[in-house]
Amino acid sequence: MAAKKKAVTRKKKPSTPKARPQARAKAAAPVDNAAAKGSLVIVESPTKAKTIGKYLGRGYTVKATVGHVRDLPKRELGVDVEHGFTPTYVTIKEKAKTLAEIKKAAKTSERVLIATDPDREGEAIAWHVAGQLGNGGKVRRVLFHEITKDAVAQALAHPLDIDQRKVDAQQARRVLDRLVGYKASPLLWKSIKTGLSAGRVQTVALRLICEREAEIRSFTPQEYWTIEADLEKDGQAFQARLHKLDGHKPDIKDAATAQAIVADARRLPFVVTTVEKGERRRAAPPPFRTSTLQQEAAKQLGFSAARTMRAAQRLYEGVEIGDEGPVGLITYMRTDSIRVADSAVAQAREFIGRNFDPRYLPATPPAHKEGKGQSRVQDAHEAIRPTEVERRPEANKKHLESDLFKLYQLIWRRFVASQMTPAVFETTKVDFDLGRHVFRATGSRMLFDGYHALYHEAHEPEEGKTLEDLPPIPALVQGDHVTVRGLTPNQHFTEPPPRYSEASLVKELERLGIGRPSTYATIISTLRTRWYATAKDRRFAPTPQGETVWKVMKRCFPEVFEVGFTAQMETELDKVEEGDLGWQQVLGDFWGPFSKALAAVDVQQIIHDVHDLSNLHEERCPVCGSPVEVRSGRFGPFIACARYPKECTFSRSLKKDKVPDRPSDVVCKECGAPMVVKTGRYGEFLACTKYPQCKHTQPVPLGVKCPKCGVGELAERRTRKGRNFFGCLRYPD
Question: Could you give the residue numbers annotated as active site?
Answer without folding.
Answer: 332
